[in-house]
Amino acid sequence: ENSKNDDVHVKANALLQAHFSRQTVVGNLAAGQREILLPAPRLIKSLVDVISSNGWLSLALKAMELSQMVTQGMWDRDSMLLQLPHFTKELTERWQENGIESIFDLAELSADKMQNLLQLPNSQLKDITDSSNGSRISECRMVTLERDMTNLPSEVGPVHAPRYPKPRLEGWWLQRASLKLEFVAPAEAGKKDYMVFLMSDSYLGIDQEYVFTVNVKDAGGD
Questions:
Q1: Which residues form the SEC63 domain (predicted)?
Q2: How far is the C-alpha of 101 from the C-alpha of 69, rounded, in Å?
């Protein structure tokens, strides 16, 4: 009987967990990890399509978060600051002690305060500020969403993802959900509450939720 450790599914699971935990593998294991990671975003997108077509919202959101984890090489429970260049766990802990938990918090800092907290060379500081535009991207997309829900580009630029084995272009998912499960579609007259999820396929922690109300008129009314 073959050992379970030789099972391809066990191996793939272990290599993915090593990727999320940022543990280095070498030799044949590194080659195998690369073979798993390269097609993963495409497979996850197909998985999202199948799940969404069945109306399974929570599973679809989990699959989207898996795409983010694969791209960034980190767990969804890790600090999102680890997605930025030059950020280590030690530096992240120092920032969290000063109340900086997310890229959104980072975007609100002045250049002087950021330099005082980071204590990094100007070149590295520029790398961080350049790559922290994920929050600005999400804010820009939300403005577009409020104006025109059909005017959302599927790709918005290159992704900072040094742990993914090849360059990637960032993409977004737009997922609609009813806040009241009995309203599968606005077929009846009255107000229907919905939530839109705007999900990045590459960055953790910058996803957006937007609540809106649709007032459906009675087709037989004036």
A1: 2-214
A2: 18
